Amino acid sequence: MHQLHTQTVGLPATITFAILAGLTVIGALFTITRRNPVVAVISLVGTFFALAGVYASLSAHFLAILQILVYAGAIMVLFIFVVMILNRDEITRVAARGMVRRGLGVVAAGYVVWLLASVVANSSATPLLGGPLSEPGADFGTVASVGASLFTDFMFPFEAVSLLLLVAVVGGLVVSRSEKQEDDAEETARRRAQVATEIRPESMVGGPTDATANHEAAHH
Amino acid sequence: MSFDLSQLSAIVPLIIVTGMGCLILLAETFARNRARTGLASLALGGCVFAFVAVAAQWDAAATKTTVLQGMWVMDRMALFLDATFVATAAITVLISGPFMREHGFEFGEFYGIVLFATGGMMMVSHADHLLMLLIGIETTSLAAYVLTGCWRRNARSSEGAMKYFLMGAFATGFLVYGMALIYGTTGGEMTYAGIAAKAAVSSNSSLFVAGVYFVLIALIFKVAAVPFHMWAPDTYEGAPTPATGFMAAGVKAAAFGAILRLFGTVFGGPGLPGEPIGWVRILATVAILTMTFGNLAALRQENIKRMLAYSSIAHAGYLLVGVVAVGVGIAGAQSAVLFYLVTYTFTTLGVFGVIAWVGKRGDERLFVDDWAGLGTARPALALAMTIFLLSLGGVPPTGGFFGKFYLFRAAMQSPELYPLVIAGVLNSVVSVYYYLRVVVAMYFRDATRPLDSYPSASMRAALVLTAIAVVVLGLFPGAVVDWAGGAGAAVAKVAGL
Amino acid sequence: MTSDYIAATLAILAGVGMALLLTMVAQHVGPHRPTKAKQIPYEAGSDVIGSPRARFSVKFYQVAIMFLVFDIEAAFLYPWAVNYRKLSCLGPLQDGVCTAGVSFFGLGGVMVFMAVLVVALAYVWRKRAIGWE
Fold first, then answer.
1. Cα B263 → chain centroid
2. Any CB–CB contact under 8 A between B62 and chain C?
3. Which positions 48-77 of C are in contact with A (Cβ < 8 Å)?
């Protein structure tokens, strides 16, 4: 009774899963092996769509739609923009540092894959802690049922996510400031240093901050 | 079903820091230039209020309660860590203002992001649900990536942020995968109590064990332990120095908070030894490797920031000894780890504060040779640096000594952990060598270049505060040990002892 | 529910197949008489100046980041809207009619969420990340 119930899953579902999982992996492999970034990005779209299919086959209907909307939609736009910004000529292959490191990496990756494969292969032999999982209800994964739990049991994490999104927006803008904005920031810093000077004039006369600020100003 | 509003009192410190962060963002964009100089004070005020709010919760949190539908745990360990995070943020704010002004890239978002990161850390320390842990860790990490890469005109800053981000995203993948495996194998449990209940009956499922290991991998990545430490030297070296201090102290403390709670109460700890899952043995190996590698690599560094990055890896190793002691069920190990975290936090912030102050625009003075003669040119600064370095090395009468003392004393209670203690003591001895190299350079060598650093009241305040804290922790560790003991006992009580 | 996907899959396959089919038909049936002038980019008659792979402004990235964040925000609002009636009622719903008093829980929760994101919006607005100069 503590087994993973692979036998309760019908053959069509298994075939669907195999196809979708295969597509996901193939898309991911293409993404990391294609040298043309645009091809890599399009392969990633394929991966996202196949993943949405996996979600749908697991009755996570709303999640499947979100996967397509957010990942295949918004995140792909972001990737394409980044590819355009980076300008292909600048994209050079990262040189792996030496054969030893590369070899170690391959060995480590192979070991992890082997370990995971053996874990999955043995998983039907060891009991699940919670016993077999029950079948999901008829409305499982619909927009209504996701909302019903999101806005009751998971209200606090939902609010916490807003903080995460806020940090993402601010962080994205901070790390992508343009040269002009950087100049503005520098100007602001200089002005703030001056304000500080006015507050404590005696300590700043001929001080290093003043000197360097003037020096910089002379440069621009 | 829905939570009542009175439970919101539990998250007042979180509301204060995030609300103040939002206010700073708005002030940065809306206020006029002159008014903007007050942003650092605004951030500082937020930290003070949050600290008061945390202190006000202390008495009520003697027994553990869970609020907000099992998402948020209120106990003294979480509050103890909260106080540490808030202090970290306050000192970072004090240091970063003058630093950014000197190097010409001051922007108010920095303070906001520091406060948001603090909020994320609070979520980590209070998390009683895997989802909250994930959101907290992600908020903290995202903020840390930005703080690392915010020095746009410094190529090393961008490089460090890039490496940190790529590796960190990979580690998050491990975290989520591990959580999914735990969720699946426990029949849909995501609360710590639920998982612990299932794991106490049997933890013999190979998928469950794989999930636990994945979570462990992600968390020891965040504390930069071997073999997941590769990002740390480049990131710590590249980040603006105040941000380095914030990451080395705050982010690491938050990750240790998560490790203590998960591996001290859910997958191991008193009443629930971690041996069935087997992580204790692995973590013991990781601890020895981390201490040894960190110290040996630090010996060879000429760049002080890089040296301290490796030293911070080594300190993660010492702390992991404490976690192993918690895992085998030693009472008091938890409070020893918490005490060590406090001393390490103040020491690290201080040491990076001194580095931030010694350098000036276009000349960061990051090499040991650059520090020659500081003892005569800036005696007070050199004295502070000496205190911090001795504390890092664990030399009495500094806080670092008692941190190591309590940690190793806790581990000594189990004969199985003797090898760990021996490795820890040997490593501490080795580490004193490279810390003293800097001290020797400061006092016994003549300056090659004039040493003049910019005047700054807030920098001075931060360094005086941290130096006093480190000395007081070394002379009178009693009070903080009691607080940490209360925090540690709270956790032990939860586990049913 | 899962069986509904069979129809959806068939529709997607039919759509993709039709697009591929038309492209192939156009390639094979249409006449091909390439000349040198036709092969140059744009066929506009003038010579190409510089590389076609010009570097794009980082603005694109900033806009994409914001699009992504607010896209996620919008995604959270679907399940909220579907459940709004239920969330606003203190008791159970009977045939869509509330049997008890009004609860502001659902509204308040989303308002807090939105308020934080309005801070983000105000920030990017003032930082002139939206719009070009």
1. 17
2. no
3. 51, 53-69, 71-73, 75-76
Q: Are residues A89 and A101 in the same domain?
A: no
Q: In terms of residue numbers, what domain contains A8?
A: 1-93
Shortest CA distance from C81: residue in chain A = A147
- Nearest-CA distance A182 → chain C (Å): 12
Q: Is A37 contained in some domain?
A: yes
Q: At B188, which helix (H) or strand (E)?
A: none
> What is the rounded CA–CA span in Å between residue A20 and residue A24?
6
Residue A187 has pLDDT above 80, yes or no: no
Whole-number pLDDT of residue A198? 52
pLDDT(A6) > 70? no
Residue at B1 is within a domain: no
Q: Would the pLDDT of A208 be above 70?
A: no
A80 within domain boundaries:
yes
- C22 CB near a chain A CB, below 8 Å? no
CB B388 within 8 A of CB B466: yes
Task: State the nearest Cα–Cα gap between B136 and chain A, in angstroms.
Answer: 8
Same structural domain for residues A103 and A80? Answer: no
ipTM: 0.92
State whether C126 and B2 contact (CB < 8 Å): no
List chain C domain ranges. Answer: 4-43, 59-126
pLDDT tens figures, B306-343: 999 999 999 999 999 999 998 888 888 889 999 999 99
Closest chain A C-alpha to B111 CA, distance in angstroms: 12
Chain A residues closer than 8 Å to B131 by CB = 154, 157
Are both A117 and A170 inside the same structural domain?
A: no
Q: What is the pTM of this model?
A: 0.90
Range of the domain at B331: 7-488
Report the C-alpha gap between A104 and C130 in whole angstroms: 46
Q: What mean pLDDT do residues B64-83 have?
A: 90
Q: Say whether A157 and B2 touch across the interface (CB within 8 A).
A: no
Contact by Cβ (8 Å): B183, B256: no
The reply to whether B387 falls in a domain is yes
Residue A138 falls in which region: left (phi positive, over 0), alpha (psi -120 to 50) or beta: alpha
How many structural domains does chain A have? 3
Q: Is the preceding peptide bond at A136 cis, omega within 30 degrees of 0?
A: no
Interface check for C118 against chain B (CB to CB < 8 A): the answer is no
Whether residue A139 lies inside any domain: the answer is no
* Confidence category of residue A71, pLDDT binned at 50, 70, 90: confident
CATH code: domain of residue A58: 1.20.120.1200
Using a CB-CB distance cutoff of 8 angstroms, which residues of chain A are in contact with residue B185?
A: 128-130
C107–chain A Cβ distance below 8 A for any pair: no
The pLDDT of residue A202 is 41
Contact A163 B120 (CB under 8 A): yes
Tokens 């332990």 appear where? B225
Backbone angles phi, psi at B454, to 5 degrees: -70, 145
